[in-house]
């Protein structure tokens, strides 16, 4: 900390404000390097590796053969490394600070999990290896399956889906297979609440179902009476998120499940928010027939995971027989992958993906489970809910919560009514958060709330971290109400790039780099 003219300690923002307009010869600002695009600095003749000249082969592409050079930028190895290291410094991550994206559960990824995932036999396993060479990997999948079934109170689990939306597809395909087995192909309607994730109706429509919305109550929850009005002999299922995308537990979930089952339909639950109820409630006891689980949200495997994700789907007794192959089965204490439509997999809906899943994601998830234990997983859920309610309690006097003073689950939802008359929008708040060193919360979702701001701190954050975030959010709200419009409309000022025209970028995207037109003077020469 340096001293300012008045002898007080100058904070980092004050120092930055003094020097922000200083121009440097290079365009760089200390460690913030200003770099040209790769297409501008690359040379086709340069490469980081030496490859032999490829042999001549017969042309097989016909009219699809390239007629012009591919024009990919060539870089020496140091140039490529420097480029990606510099880009990495512009990324915000959970390793940098709180990542308050609502509905995304951006929790800490323990390094122990990474160490386990790199162990020989896990990190180097290949999907085409004979089963006899990977018994440990198969046994790990079996043990992870056991934990998922126990935590959800369900009958079976399909491990092969690669992510949340793929898991949704798996669950809905299992429901479709069950209906076909019952001779009820006429059931074509899927009920989807207005507060559902966007992938829910998309998944249902993808496999031929007709989507009908279910309106939410004023507090964002689903009314069983609205469900009863819509069930009938043509309804196949309901797709419900619980806790829902407003951060609230669907208190009438058992009654909703009964209405669905009485009509002969199935209950699909979106498990994106499972992190709020692990160890507290078993979805099987709530009447759920299928639910996908995002291992990258609930069990700390990283988002993306360096490749395909993992979205296991737990199934009730009513749907267990239709789980996709391959299945992990136990025979006299030995576990194996059942890959053909025989025995316990005779009614399987078939194969959804070439292989069984992403091994690294499985190892990370089981490491997280074993290191926490059942009581630790329950505490993680409790802490996630506690942290969200702490933020709610500390901000509700300045930010407007559509659910009022009602406690939330793992995330807190605010709307933009507190900004009325200020000329400032939810997007402006989000951009100003970037200047303050935070990744913005989820904005404009769920769609049932105008100007939504959805904050999910997860259990990873300490009291000090939450207090710092809350103080910054309170300062933004007070500045907005005080009329400091420039602070918001000009944000972000300190990011590597200033605010973009996001509407134009979405409607007129430039997907290819093109060399700029030569300037008039250059053209004259």
Please provide the count of β strands: 14
Mean pLDDT, to the nearest integer, reads 90
Taken as a percent bin, the fraction of beta residues is 5-15%
Are there runs of 5+ residues with pLDDT below 50, and where?
Answer: 1-16
**Sheet with most strands: strand arrangement:** 3-9-8-7-6-4-5
Output the CATH class name of the largest domain: Alpha Beta
Which H/E pattern describes the elements?
Answer: EEHHHHHEHEHEHEHEEHEEEHEHEEHHHH
Spatial shape:
globular
* Sheet with most strands: 7 strands, mixed
CATH topology of the largest domain: Aspartate Aminotransferase, domain 2
CATH architecture type of the largest domain: 3-Layer(aba) Sandwich
Number of helices: 16
Question: How widely separated are the two ends?
Answer: 54 Å
What is the count of structural domains? 3
Q: What is the name of the CATH superfamily of the largest domain?
A: Type I PLP-dependent aspartate aminotransferase-like (Major domain)
Helicity, as a percent range: 25-40%
Give me the secondary-structure category: alpha/beta
List the helices and strands and how they pair.
Layout: E1 2-3, E2 9-10, H1 12-19, H2 38-41, H3 77-88, H4 111-117, H5 135-152, E3 156-158, H6 164-181, E4 189-193, H7 199-206, E5 210-214, H8 224-230, E6 235-241, H9 253-262, E7 266-270, E8 290-292, H10 295-298, E9 313-315, E10 327-331, E11 334-338, H11 359-395, E12 412-414, H12 426-435, E13 442-443, E14 453-455, H13 463-481, H14 485-489, H15 502-507, H16 520-524
Parallel strand pairs: 4-5, 4-6, 6-7, 7-8
Antiparallel strand pairs: 1-2, 3-9, 8-9, 10-11, 12-14, 13-14
Helix pairs in contact: 4-11, 5-11, 6-7, 8-9, 11-13
């Amino acid at each position: 900390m340096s001293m300012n003219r008045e002898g007080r300690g100058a904070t980092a923002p004050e120092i930055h404000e003094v020097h922000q307009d200083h121009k440097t010869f290079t365009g760089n600002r200390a460690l913030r390097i200003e770099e040209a695009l790769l297409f501008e600095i690359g040379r086709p003749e340069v490469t980081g590796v030496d490859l032999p000249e490829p042999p001549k082969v017969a042309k097989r592409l016909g009219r699809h053969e390239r007629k012009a050079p591919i024009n990919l930028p060539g870089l020496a190895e140091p140039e490529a490394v420097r480029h990606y290291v510099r880009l990495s410094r512009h990324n915000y991550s959970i390793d940098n600070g709180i990542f308050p994206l609502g509905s995304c559960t951006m929790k800490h990824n323990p390094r122990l999990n990474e160490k386990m995932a790199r162990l020989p036999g896990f990190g180097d396993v290949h999907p085409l290896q004979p089963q006899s060479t990977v018994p440990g990997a198969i046994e790990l999948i079996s043990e992870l399956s056991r934990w998922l079934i126990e935590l959800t109170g369900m009958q079976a689990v399909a491990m092969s889906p690669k992510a949340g939306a793929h898991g949704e597809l798996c669950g809905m395909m299992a429901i479709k297979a069950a209906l076909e087995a019952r001779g009820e192909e006429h059931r074509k309607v899927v009920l989807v609440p207005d507060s559902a994730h966007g992938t829910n109706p998309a998944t249902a429509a993808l496999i031929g179902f007709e989507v009908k919305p279910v309106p939410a109550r004023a507090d964002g929850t689903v009314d069983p009476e609205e469900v009863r009005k819509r069930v009938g002999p043509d309804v196949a299922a309901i797709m419900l998120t619980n806790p829902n995308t407003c951060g609230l537990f669907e208190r009438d979930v058992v009654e909703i499940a009964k209405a669905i089952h009485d009509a002969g339909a199935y209950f699909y639950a979106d498990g994106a928010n499972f992190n709020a109820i692990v160890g507290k409630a078993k979805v099987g006891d709530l009447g759920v027939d299928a639910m996908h689980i995002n291992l990258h949200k609930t069990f700390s495997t990283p988002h993306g995971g360096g490749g395909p994700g993992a979205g296991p789907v737990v199934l009730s007794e009513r749907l267990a027989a239709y789980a996709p192959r391959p299945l992990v089965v136990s025979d006299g204490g030995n576990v194996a992958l059942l890959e053909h439509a025989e025995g316990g997999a005779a009614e399987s809906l078939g194969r959804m993906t070439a292989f069984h899943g992403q091994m690294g994601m499985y190892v990370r998830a089981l490491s997280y489970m074993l290191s926490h234990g059942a009581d630790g997983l329950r505490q993680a859920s409790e802490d996630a809910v506690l942290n969200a309610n702490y933020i709610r309690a500390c901000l509700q006097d300045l930010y407007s919560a559509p659910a009022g003073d009602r406690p939330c689950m793992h995330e807190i939802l605010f709307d933009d009514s507190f900004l009325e008359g200020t000329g400032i929008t939810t997007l402006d708040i989000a951009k100003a958060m970037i200047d303050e060193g935070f990744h913005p919360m989820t904005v404009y979702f769920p769609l049932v709330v105008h100007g939504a701001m959805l904050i999910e701190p997860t259990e990873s954050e300490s009291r000090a971290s939450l207090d710092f975030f809350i103080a910054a959010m309170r300062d933004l709200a007070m500045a907005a109400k005080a009329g400091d419009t420039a602070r918001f409309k000009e944000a972000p000022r300190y990011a590597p790039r200033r605010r973009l025209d996001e509407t134009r970028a979405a409607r007129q995207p430039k997907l290819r780099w093109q060399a700029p037109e030569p300037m008039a003077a250059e053209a004259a020469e």
